[in-house]
Specification:
With 442 residues, this protein is an alpha/beta fold. The chain has four domains: 129 residues, NusB-like (N-utilizing Substance Protein B Homolog, Chain A, Orthogonal Bundle), CATH 1.10.940; 39 residues, no CATH class; 57 residues, 2-Layer Sandwich (Alpha-Beta Plaits); 203 residues, Rossmann fold (3-Layer(aba) Sandwich). A hairpin with a 6-residue loop joins β2 and β3. α1 runs antiparallel to α2 and α9 crosses α10.
């Protein structure tokens, strides 16, 4: 039987040192690990938790590592990280048991000398007080430590949303995401799907905003469930499920999805259109189109045409083709940190600003692809207002033949309406998201 914490360290080394994506690296390692389901759950908890709270953990470790973090051996650094995470954030694991496990793993896979270092650092931490790592009177520093966000990101959220909402956003982004299913009306209906899920032993509840959504509270891996494998349901965050219904779709329409991968919104469009009309799925990477094809086949969808396309480059073949055009543009992803916590430390302000030029090129082309009277639906999974409301303001200033179309998703506390779109704030059930609807009036 493999050691769960050793596997967690190996995974984190791949993510932190080699730039691996957390979900891909984790799934790959767990699929080949000789672990019971309980231990696989522990690995998942430790990996995502350590990534999520990396800023705070490293702040703590920097006090006890005399030579700093950068000069520290990667294995030692990550065994320290996962153990600090367990001590500080996992109440169910006894503190000294976590320390002893870390020491034994280090002794086995590194050296006796390294194990003494690990033991000393961790026991010094146990004797310390968390308040000693920051100046509580310094608001940015305190928020960065308490919620484990880089200071530049804390400053950005406060500047754009104010102190209270910014803190709520950070709290929401630290929540553990639930699994949400979208029921496929082409193959079944909501009531029958719910009955089948319950019959398969799942504990579920209806989601609060999207009518096709079912939240899985408890149950086995959904990918192995017959409801999923037969195409009656697909996994999608509830925020993302709001996009397609907001497009005012009808049967036999022509719809262009300019940035379609991984295809969740594309297939949702087809489902709403009852598999009629034509949906063009475009993506800059041709290999990603194959994934959309596989998903569409499972869902019984046949009205999608697939083409590789750089959405930033104008294509005359698409001029005035779409009744609807969806541009789910490449973005900084600040709204999906619940699922991809490495975004906290892989992004920077310069990268955010560089994305805006790409987004505006795609918007400009979409304006030429949609028919008069049609709609562009602009969406992102970020909370950066420069990529959201500011882009919509810019677009309207450059395209006087477009007007904002109101969207209403109900009065949930985490849904914020403005003159330039709708922002979904992250919470325990939904990712952070932005949606705007633009009507080509002439």
């Amino acid at each position: 039987m493999d050691n769960a914490r050793k596997i967690a360290v190996d995974i984190l080394q791949n993510i932190f040192d080699k730039g691996g994506y957390s979900n891909i690296v984790l799934n790959k390692n767990l699929s080949k690990a000789d672990l019971e389901n309980r231990d696989k759950g522990l690995v998942t908890e430790i990996v995502y938790g350590t990534i999520k709270y990396k800023y705070t953990i490293d702040k703590i470790l920097s006090k006890f590592l005399k030579n700093g973090l950068k000069k520290q051996d990667s294995f030692i650094l990550n065994i320290l990280r996962i153990t600090i995470y367990q001590i500080k954030y996992l109440e169910k694991i006894p503190q000294f048991a976590a320390v002893n496990e870390a020491v034994e793993i280090t002794k086995k896979y590194k050296s006796l000398g390294s194990s003494k270092l690990v033991n000393g650092v961790l026991r010094n931490y146990l004797r310390s007080n968390d308040s000693s790592y920051i100046k509580e009177s310094h608001n940015i520093e305190a928020l960065s430590f308490n919620y484990s966000f880089e200071p530049w990101m804390v400053k950005l959220l406060i500047k754009q949303y104010g102190n209270v909402t910014a803190e709520n956003i950070m709290d929401g982004l630290n929540k553990v995401p639930s699994i949400t299913l979208r029921i496929n009306n082409i193959k079944t209906n909501y009531e029958n799907a719910v009955k089948e899920l319950i019959a398969y032993g799942y504990e579920i509840e209806e989601d609060s905003v999207c009518p096709e959504a079912v939240r899985v509270i408890k149950g086995k891996s959904i990918e192995n469930n017959p409801l999923f494998t037969s195409g009656m349901a697909t996994v999608q965050d509830e925020s993302a499920m709001l996009v397609a219904p907001a497009m005012s779709l009808g049967e036999n329409m022509t719809v262009l999805d300019l940035c379609s991968a991984p295809g969740g919104k594309t297939t949702h469009i087809s489902e709403i259109m009852n598999n009629t009309g034509t949906v063009y799925a475009f993506d800059i990477y041709e290999d990603k189109l194959a994934l959309i094809m596989q998903n569409a086949k499972r869902l019984g969808i046949t009205n999608i045409k697939y083409n590789a396309l750089d959405a930033t480059v104008y294509s005359s073949d698409l001029k005035d083709l779409g009744d609807r055009v969806l541009i789910d543009v490449p973005c900084s992803g600040l709204g999906i940190i619940r699922k991809k916590p490495e975004i906290k430390w892989t992004k920077n302000e310069a990268e955010l600003n560089n994305l805006i030029d790409i987004q505006r090129k795609i918007m400009t082309n979409a304006a030429l692809y949609v028919k008069k009277g049609g709609y562009i639906l602009y969406s992102t999974c970020t909370l950066n207002k420069k990529e959201n409301e500011e882009n919509i303001k810019w677009f309207l200033s450059k395209n006087k033949n477009f007007a904002m179309e109101r969207i209403f998703f109900g009065n949930a506390l985490n849904i914020c309406y403005s003159d330039f779109g709708v922002t979904i704030l992250p919470n325990e059930h939904m990712d952070g998201f932005f949606i705007a609807k633009l009507n080509k009036i002439e």
